[in-house]
Every structure is written in C-alpha cells, then in structure tokens.
Amino acid sequence: EDWFQGAVELPMEGIKSTSIVWKQPQELETVDATALFCGEDQRYQTHLEVYPRPDGTIYICGIGGSDYISKDELKQGAFREVCT
C-alpha cells in the first residue's frame, strides 16, 4: 500500500507456504499444458495447484501448513530475512 503513496488502498496480506518444482519425467516427451486446481483438504490444510511450465518442469504450490501474514507484519518486513 505504501508504495502507491495513498493513491490506491489494497488489502495486502500474504500466505507463507511451500512450493516445489519437478523436472519433466524422462519417459515423457511433453508435459500436458493443463493447470490443475484441487479442492481443499482440511486435514492437511492444503489446496494444491499444479502448473506445467513451457520448459517441461511442473510447479506445485499450496502444499499445506500455510501461515497467513497480516498487512502489519508485511510492513514490518515479516520473513524478509529468509527470502534473501
């Protein structure tokens, strides 16, 4: 929000989560270009999203155990030290 100098107010929040990238399986020539969005699983707090990439890798996010980060925490630099 502060970046916009008051011109725009956005509900800035974040989710700290885990994601992985898989290499294309060797036995496949191509990876289907269809994204997959799975329903929420309350047991593990997951909401998997699977995205094939043009380079053949597969990006998976929403693996679970996500922590929500408030706007105030983000402004204070929450988790910035682990991202550098």
Helix/strand layout:
Elements lengths: L13 E3 L2 E4 L13 E2 L11 E4 L5 E4 L5 E3 L1 H5 L4 H4 L1
Antiparallel strand pairs: 1-6, 2-5, 3-4, 4-5
Radius of gyration: 17 Å
The helix tally amounts to 2
Which quaternary structure do these chains form? Answer: single chain
Global outline: elongated
Uncertain ranges: none
Number of E-state strands: 6
If you had to describe this structure to a student in words, what would you say it looks like?
By secondary structure, this protein is α+β, with helices and mostly antiparallel strands. The model has no long low-confidence stretch (mean pLDDT 78). The protein starts with 13 loop residues before the first strand and ends with a helix. The chain has helices at residues 71-75, 80-83, and strands at residues 14-16, 19-22, 36-37, 49-52, 58-61, 67-69. Strand 4 and strand 5 (58-61) form a beta hairpin. The longest helix has 5 residues, at 71-75. Helices cover 11% and strands 24% of the residues. It is built from two helices and six strands. The strands form two sheets. It has a four-stranded antiparallel beta sheet, with no helix packed on it. A two-stranded antiparallel sheet has the order 1-6.
